[in-house]
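Justification of computing resources. Each target in the renewal requires a structure prediction run like the one illustrated here; the chain below, 395 residues long, is used simply to show the kind of job we budget for.
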Amino acid sequence: MSADTVTITLALHNAHARQVFAGALRGMPGVELKNGAPVDLLVCELGQAAEEELARLEKARLEGRVGEVFLAGSEPTPELLIQAIRAGVSEFLPLPARAEDLAEALRRFRERRRPQAAQAAPAASGARIIAVAGAKPGTGTTTVAVNLALELTRAGAGRVGLLDLRRPHGETPFFLDLECAYTWEEVAANLSRLDATFLESLITRHASGLGLLPAPENFAGSLEDAALERLLAEMGRLFDVLVLDAGPADARNLRLLEAAERFLLVLNPSLPCLAASRSFLDEARRPGRGLEARVELVSARHVAESGIEPAEAAEVLGCKFRWLLPDDAASALSALNQGRAVSEAAPKSRLAKALAAMARDLAPAAAGPVRTRGLSALLGRLRGRSESLPAMGVA
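Resulting structure tokens:
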């Protein structure tokens, strides 16, 4: 048997599903049907004791008797979908069974089995990454990141995602008036199962269409470099533009500077901000890095008589300011407290106009087509089904 051959067991009580899936698999190259473990892939149904069965499936997977699990059934709730994913289930196949559903799920399974180095490589058509970092905490980084993502969405920039990487915890859900059930902590804990389907199940959608993956409230440490690369690569498959709320610009964020197409460094007109910004820029300029050209300066809370003119600050930093955002704490605070964009809470304010202009500058020349795929589309289809889950028998 070739190392590329996938061994599959069908544990299905539904006679029609067994017939359809078995017939489809027999016609596929590189597939071997087996009756027992160990097996690369188990396709099964859940019965009434769903939680107990999921626990047994997870145990079999952790013990190496089962590689991955596909569940087949009718009308699983969104809660059951998420619970199953956490137990190690990677795909859901709705009943009545269709051969094309199994073929597409098997294609994604084969993609996940590729060598780790190949998985970590971003897709050729990956998202344009715009990282937003602050010279110091409290400079208004999240205000800029959230409003930039919203304005890009409204400007027709395509599918826009927002990833909150602030430490120790982010605040983006407050700015968007969203309750998020999941964060990137689920990604860190389930890296081996990370793919577009799993990721879509974690993302919270804003009414505008913006997709948010927030930071955990309490998480010891941060995403390892390998995990961050995988996360950015998978989000790059889901979105056309990905905005990162990167938190303070420090040595750890040099990794984001390498990954981003544009890196916005947000600072206030103060000496501490200038000192911190200079230190970060010096790191970006070190021989062998050559990353300075990706950094663009944003003066937040800019006032005409701050004592530090933009030209003076640019001379100190060796880098010109690209955007000057006016000091408008009232509009920014009103937007935050309402969980709305500044352009909605204070549409006539100078800050709203400046943020919209920034988004126009950063919007891609032509937005890609909007696509729906993976678990989000599946959830929509399954919510509309009215049949109950049939019984199953998995030892």
